[in-house]
Amino acid sequence: MWTSLPALFLPLSVLFLRGCAGFECPRFCRCLSDTIRCNFMTEGKDHRDPKLSHHLSLKTISSHSFEGLREVKRIEIAQSVTLETIEALAFNNLLNLSEISIQNTRSLMYIDRRAFNNLPKLHYLSISNTGITVFPDITSINSLESEFILHLYDNLYLLEVPTNAFSGMTKGYVIMNLYNNGIREIHHHAFNGTKIDKLVLKNNRNLEKIHRDAFKGAMGPGVLDVSATAISKLPSHGLESVLVLSAQSTYTLKSLPPLQGLSRLQEAHLTYNSHCCALLSWSTHRHFPINSPWNNISTSCGEVDDLGRVQSVIGSSADITLLVSEPDQFEENSFGDLDFHYPVLDYCQTQPIICTPEEDAFNPCEDIAGFSFLRVAIWFISILAITGNLMVLLVFFTSRNKLTVPRFLMCHLAFADLCIGIYLLVIATVDLQTRGHYSQHAIEWQTGPGCSAAGFLSVFGGELSVYTLSTITLERWHTITNALQVERHLLLTQAAGIMAAGWLLCLGMGTLPLVGVSSYTKVSMCLPMDIETPLAQAFIIIVLLLNVSAFIIVCVCYVLIFLAIKNPEFPERSADTRIAKRMAVLIFTDFLCMAPISFFAISAAFKFPLITVTNSKILLVLFFPINSCANPFLYAIFTKAFRKDAYQLMNAIGCWKRKGSVYRLKACCLENAIESNLRSDNRRLQAGMSPAPVAHHQLQLNDLGDLT
Ligand SMILES: *[C@@H]1O[C@H](CO)[C@@H](O)[C@H](O)[C@H]1NC(C)=O
Ligand SMILES: *[C@@H]1O[C@H](CO)[C@@H](O)[C@H](O)[C@H]1NC(C)=O
Ligand SMILES: *[C@@H]1O[C@H](CO)[C@@H](O)[C@H](O)[C@H]1NC(C)=O
Fold this sequence. Notes:
Domain G-protein coupled receptors family 1 profile: 388-635
Shape: elongated
Transmembrane segments: 376-397, 409-430, 450-469, 490-515, 535-563, 584-606, 618-638
CATH superfamily of the largest domain: Rhodopsin 7-helix transmembrane proteins
Structural class: alpha/beta
Signal peptide: 1-22
Strand content: 5-15%
Largest sheet: 10 strands, parallel
Bound molecules: 2-acetamido-2-deoxy-beta-D-glucopyranose
Helix content: 40-55%
Number of strands: 21
Mean pLDDT: 74
Keywords: Cell membrane, Disulfide bond, G-protein coupled receptor, Leucine-rich repeat, Membrane, Receptor, Repeat, Signal, Transducer, Transmembrane, Transmembrane helix
Radius of gyration: 39 Å
Low-confidence stretches: 1-56, 289-348, 680-708
GO cellular component, one term: basolateral plasma membrane
């Protein structure tokens, strides 16, 4: 028996730890006190491959361990908790060896350089679930096989793929499955000198950097999978031959490399649907080199039998090892330097790209302003809102009149509406910058700080505006119903307290989407439309319900005010109709702003969207800011009190302009000052601050003064 198999002794000089419970000497091994000798069953004997395996207690696979195993085809080392080192030339000159598999050896820390040396028939090498920290040197394998499969996975301490890591491994095509490792970085020229069929890097969760020149000197890859990694950029060169690109759950990959660099892409499975928008719109007008030698062949594209096979292979999940075989009819060099592995597919490039995920309801393939009239409208509205509210703030701040409660509230209203104006301006600016190619920038914008800031402004401004509007209305109603009891009027300190609470509330609402309750990143308009989690849904519904109840409060208050005025005891009749008209306008604009958005938003929040995001943009651009544009006019600019303030400001400015001499300036300003003093005295009198008796109707009219 032994003499018939002289070459099959494996002199493994290993440390055999005695007394290791559970260790059973394999049937085909002879176990001595400090040595294990195994004779491998060979294929020649009973078609069983040698297995040096299961619970071996060896520490080292030393040099030349397998020397002389000329006919061995497969070496498997697995389930060893003790194996620590593989020495140089451990697998040396094994001319018939085709598969090496080293698995589940968590203590294996070190594989010496040239451990795998001259294995011309090797076409499968698997090193998985080991403790190696340095990329194993596989550059002297020199396989002559036309296809090589390299599995390197679950090596959690493997941190880098160095330069020239694979050169000299094989001359043929390689499928590299490098998934689930701890790889953080792939260096430049890492794949130098290889022809990569397929490169799977998925689940290297720490992989942040693939060097710009990582694919320099390499051919391929045809299939690239960087799913579930942390890369933020794909190399801009070296992806020309990628046919299938997988980057699912790669949330950090916010922009694609220049699309010209992906000239042969057929299929992409990405993380963000806006990238698909960009790819698809680009692919519809990409053109292929006219002089390509394939152009003539492309006419026979559909007739080639292999097409179906190759496509079905590519079409299947990228996880599945690609069955690549070079069709005989295409010699490697028959197409000059374009001898890529899927020639058949290349003929048929006219097919549209398959890309997932497709556009969804939240991210349609369009610019921020979906319609061009919106682009014009959004500029107009934002500038109107900003100038109107800035004007109000300017006049109030420069006013020398006493700060009253309505004036104080009006300042807050103007500020809130200014926020909305700024939000719209930001959106309009980004829209202008990304016009025509928004989908390429969508993710960078939506996940960036700009969008968060804009979204915060919109929610904060919108809610503060609603809150202040309600407060103003309540305050007026309170003042009018308590017209006679001056002591019950709202004091400035009370108003400040109410507004402070409002600020806190609105700041909180604006901040919640930033900290994970809903989010501003869902849509290009940066509004919190994310209702995926119940919490987010609850948040949106609460915000909307608050808005609706605020609207109801405003309506009820105005009705009550109107009734109070209509009261026959109310002396001044002439103002009735004017006030009624003004109130009607106020409620109408409020309603116009609130109702459509609230209606559709509430339906969407309950996950029954009645309109598309594209159409909702019309609502959001045209209706949402109605109040912000109208408020400065309705509550300030059109009121008498404001016009007085503005007149004073104008006078003051006029003074500076008209200054001919210092004396004239002095005289002019003195005059103004006296005038305004007189007026404010008068106002104080009217406002009932003076203890002097004031006629009722005068008092009441003044309460409405801000309204008329
Ligand atoms: C490889 O194996 C074949 C039989 O399968 C044998 O004829 C040949 O000699 C072996 N090659 C070497 C180099 O031992
Ligand atoms: C790439 O590999 C070739 C040989 O295949 C070698 O000459 C060259 O120096 C390598 N490039 C780098 C940058 O290492
Ligand atoms: C393509 O076909 C035309 C004739 O149809 C021929 O003149 C031309 O040389 C061919 N091009 C290549 C690159 O074979």
